[in-house]
Amino acid sequence: MEGGSLSQFIQQGEFWQLHEIPKLVEEMGQAIAAFTEHGLRHRNLCPANLLIRSREPLDIVVIEYGSASLSEFDLDIVTPLDISVIAHQKP
């Protein structure tokens, strides 16, 4: 990795230029969209979980998938809960 996490960049006082921020937001949006397409929520997307593989051209890697989970909405679609079956199961 070129420089570590975005959090490390911030702690070192290495701030991003105004023209770099839209690309950073775009990359993060693409990562969130990829998670959403697969029915996942990262749940802890923060500067510490964004590794900078390359700053020019910008290439980030999202880490710390341990807190990722299926969204409740997607669980309902993938495995709908049939209340009638649960209510009539033997103890």
UniProtKB/TrEMBL annotation:
<feature type="domain" description="Protein kinase">
    <location>
        <begin position="1"/>
        <end position="91"/>
    </location>
</feature>
<dbReference type="GO" id="GO:0005524">
    <property type="term" value="F:ATP binding"/>
</dbReference>
<dbReference type="GO" id="GO:0004672">
    <property type="term" value="F:protein kinase activity"/>
</dbReference>
<protein>
    <recommendedName>
        <fullName>Protein kinase domain-containing protein</fullName>
    </recommendedName>
</protein>
<dbReference type="InterPro" id="IPR000719">
    <property type="entry name" value="Prot_kinase_dom"/>
</dbReference>
<dbReference type="InterPro" id="IPR011009">
    <property type="entry name" value="Kinase-like_dom_sf"/>
</dbReference>
